Please model this.
Amino acid sequence: MLYTNIIRNTYYDSLTLMRLSSNLSSLKGVKQAAVMMGTKLNKEFLKDANLISDEVLQASPSDVCICIEVEDNSFVKSVSETIDDFFNNMHSQKDVIRRPRSISKAMDNMPDANLAVISVPGIYAAEEAKKALRAGLNVFLFSDNVSLDDELMLKQEAEKNDLICMGPDCGTGIINGVALGFANKVHRGNIGIVGASGTGIQEITVLIHGLGEGISHAIGTGGRDLKKPVNAISALTALKSLKDDEKTKVIVFVSKPPDKEIEEKVLMELSKCGKPVIVLFLGSNPPNELPQNIHWAKNMEDVAKCAVALLKDEEIPPYSIEDGINKIEKSRIKDEIEKLDKNQTFLRGLYSGGTLCDEAIFILAEMFSEIWSGHNVGSGVKELENPFASVGHSLIDMGEDIFTRGKPHPMIDYGTRISRMLDEAEDEEVAVILLDVVIGYGSHPNPKEILIPTIKKIRESGKQSNRYVSIVASVCGTDIDPQNLEEQTKALEQEGVLVFSSNAKAAYAAGLIANKAL
Model:
């Protein structure tokens, strides 16, 4: 049965709508739920998910569409009550927090503000970002589906006015200790980060926090900034900011490999910044010669260790994932291998973070002759014909559009990933399932509550078929995040999950288990 509720002429940002969708999806009797603005593209997503109705078809882009498939009419009451409670709780904050409906009104309330966070449908995002820039505000543009031409226009406008436009599709930032988008609660400190990615920034900041140091600023640029048309406008502005910032003593630059001429331009600017720099272009080899102040890292854990060493004016130690796995962890890996049957040989990675998935692919591509994935095809990585069906050793970024149509991002709603975990565990050739668990602001409030029942199901099913599946994970978070790193880690470990302190270690350990080699 399909239940729909249209809220007319009301806008909520995508994170708010994702949270409501996640709340509804967790209700008893709800098969699937989607909450989104009534744009043409979103209606197509709802149609693909069989969540479309005449009411939704008639909705305007300014209407909120709540579409829920329930088992039968008896569950509608709890659905309706959950929707009412969600919005009532939001509206109860009005006496404390005024909600201006335009950038100019917001500036009237906060005349000293210098940053606007914009999360509106892509068709409106460029215009709102332009208004903010022309009002003298820096922009954190969370919205996606912004055209390349509009991105270039916005970044040129920002550059002209000595401002920065972070994004579009900028998932993460930390400015003056304030977390933006999906980010973690970390200590303030003296390491500044420029990153094109979201979970790449998150992983590095939490690892630096875990090593006892902190972040001055973490500035996101959006994934297209290092491509030729955009010409690294935001990245270079961010570098200048960190260069001029007295609190920033060490600079980190992380992204997927830029276009070659952009890489050369960025390295040239880094060489002139007067500060030690760590560079990670995931999956890319360093040039033959590097400026003296630049260190080329192997992965995100290496980045964090190098940054902390440079900050302390210590010699950078040689890095090896293998050497970083301690005796207890090696013993547990050996135990996992001994529980497997000889026909269990495949690894299945199910990720919510795109950059974390990329890093795992590059690590495992050196351990296996063949890896399958939906992206980063090449150099031993083959493209899955059907991303919904794994082949051999497969690593999937479940945050890609094909998996999130009509559904919240997997950092918020674990439903799609849970279903895929159960399917993978039933494959008799699967030896190990590899996961990232990303906590922090914007993410699911308590992942262990969702994951543990699923793990129990996998264990129970395994007992019935006399087969064991190893589960390996990393938790990207800190001890001061709302979900608490230690709580999440301990709960998973109690269910037999091998949890590692970094994504790199988790990927490497999963590879050892699948290879049955230690």
Summary: The chain has a mean pLDDT of 92. DSSP finds 19 helices and 20 strands in the chain. The longest strand covers residues 430-438.
